[in-house]
Amino acid sequence: MIALFQVDAFTDRPFAGNPAAVCLLAAPQPEQWMQEVAAEMNLPETAFLIEGDDGYGLRWFSPAVEVELCGHATLASAHVLWEEGRLAPGAEARFHTRSGLLTAKRAGQWIEMDFPAEPERPVVRPEWIEPALGVPPLYVGKNRMDYLVELPSEEAVRRVRPNMALLRQKAPRGVIVTSGSSDGRFDFVSRFFAPAAGIDEDPVTGSAHCCLGPYWQKRLGKSDLTGYQASRRGGIVKVRVEGDRTRLQGQAVMVVRGALV
What we know:
This protein is an alpha+beta fold. The protein folds into two domains: 2-108 and 250-260, Diaminopimelate Epimerase, Chain A, domain 1; 121-243, Diaminopimelate Epimerase, Chain A, domain 1. Helix content is 22%, strand content 43%. It contains six helices and 18 strands. It has helices at 31-41, 71-83, 129-133, 154-159, 164-170, 206-220, and strands at 2-9, 18-25, 45-52, 55-61, 66-67, 93-97, 100-107, 110-116, 121-122, 139-142, 146-150, 174-180, 188-194, 199-202, 224-229, 235-242, 245-250, 252-260.
């Protein structure tokens, strides 16, 4: 049997944040099998871990595709390794991924991850953006994975009801919508839509904050930021921008322990 866990990431309580499944593998498994497991779990991401000489190999699958970078399933994976005694409480979690070496460490009640910065660059506004979102953007940029769209207000971000069929056709992975926050606890708010990856709206997206952090650093002139992802489940991501890296902090809660039989 293969140990299987479900963790709610970027939250301090069950049934909030972003759920991820984590499979601890004893041996490599075929890519098709991993994709089928992810489709069966039908969560935003399923992480597959296999222990190596210098940490763990880590791959992430949505219900539809393998992804290049995933924050919440990495957070969930680190949480599982510590909770299950696979790593000592003070040990660093090291993950070898399609986006290079990622690390995580405990920081009090939080987990801090060291991720690449994924800054956006301005692009000519695609003609489909406004019809897809139903609101005129203030700014449109793009990085290697996603479009980033700044909207006029937090209310506009919260009220967006995207045309998912159009996004599925036009956006290679997803679209981040964001604005400054009207809540003094947060610097910015965001939402993330990725129908092409099999996730209409992702509850809390660590990899999107690798773009949001550098973007709001430029806008606000500060490197330590706190974001709130305003999905139905909601979640908090702390971000510190350090050159070409972003430090992401979140909390996590175990909700299921089990096994694939």
